[in-house]
Design brief:
single chain, about 300 residues, alpha+beta, Jelly Rolls, six-stranded antiparallel β-sheet, five-stranded antiparallel β-sheet, 11 strands
């Protein structure tokens, strides 16, 4: 029996192994943008997998091909999540749903395209089928392209980290024990209503992660309501992400008058008792106010590198 008959099966098996192995790589789940990229990849990867199966499986009935492909996607997605659990990571049933959804959308696109090419179809029906197939394909690729564009736009905006003036900025930060008013009273700014919690402020996931060629982090900020506020700033790399202890790396004072606050990055390299931060892998900025009363309002106009 010719080995060529087994090549499609071998190719599909290798793709399945690659998909499962990809789930064990470091996760993209540390920010809203990374979550979006990861979720988009689930749709896209399993759509490609389903499209390959659709082309390679040689059953006489289309319904059998569709059923086998959906079952294969669900099985591989579930197995991948179980392996993540075994590796000490949190599994997510919604990831399996995304996997199956991506596979189903790919099958719809493939069926629309193949049916539009059948003999006897009018030009209008053929074009309509192909347009519908392309639209379905865009639904598959859309989420990944959307979130990836935010990553690209954020990196192109360097040295600006956050100026609250671009539509995509809102996906790169989140309030902690605070309320956000956007836009602020100054164009391109944000107002942060602080409370008396120990940690009240912003956590930012910068799209520009390589800071090794810069000297300072600059924050344009002032207190819009309330007296001087003591602010603590922590800048974390991948190893320290989500570490918001009281051992912050910098302390600043924000006053009612407009002020430009400059934090030398060299100060981040020497934290007592801890390894130096990797300035080429900055993943998070935590900016919290301390010792303030409820109702204090912090206005931030821009955060950038210099």
């Amino acid at each position: 029996m010719s080995s060529s008959r087994y090549r499609p099966v071998a190719a599909i098996a290798l793709i399945a192994i690659a998909v499962i192995g990809g789930h064990l790589l470091p996760g993209l789940d540390n920010s809203r943008v990374e979550d979006g990229v990861r979720n988009g990849l689930h749709l896209l990867v399993f759509a490609v997998f389903a499209a390959i199966l659709f082309e390679r499986l040689k059953f006489s009935k289309t319904i059998v091909i569709v059923t086998v492909t959906i079952v294969a996607a669900a099985t591989i997605g579930t197995l991948s999540e179980l392996l993540q659990f075994a590796a000490g990571r949190q599994p997510d049933i919604f990831d399996v749903i995304r996997d199956v959804t991506g596979a189903a959308l790919a099958l719809v696109a493939c069926l629309l395209w193949s049916k539009s090419d059948e003999s006897g179809r009018s030009q209008l029906m053929m074009r309509a089928g192909r347009v519908a197939a392309v639209v379905t394909g865009l639904l598959i690729a859309g989420p990944f392209l959307f979130w990836s564009s935010i990553v690209g736009l954020g990196r192109l905006s360097a040295p600006t980290i956050l100026d609250f003036d671009q539509w995509w900025n809102k996906y790169t930060y989140r309030p902690i024990n605070a309320e956000i008013a956007l836009p602020g009273s100054v164009a391109g700014s944000v107002e942060i209503l602080l409370d008396s919690s120990i940690l009240s402020g912003l956590v930012i996931s910068p799209m520009t992660t390589d800071w090794s060629h810069y000297q300072s982090l600059v924050v344009d900020a002032h207190m819009l309501k309330g007296t001087d506020a003591n602010m603590t700033v922590r800048i974390n790399d991948s190893r320290r992400r989500n570490s918001w202890s009281d051992e912050f790396l910098a302390s600043i004072v924000v006053v009612p008058d407009r002020k430009q606050i400059r934090i030398p990055l060299s100060a981040l390299l020497d934290e007592p008792g801890k390894p130096p931060i990797d300035l080429s892998d900055i993943q998070e900025i935590a900016l919290f106010a301390r010792d303030r009363r409820n109702g204090s309002i912090l206005l931030i106009d821009e955060i950038r590198l210099d």
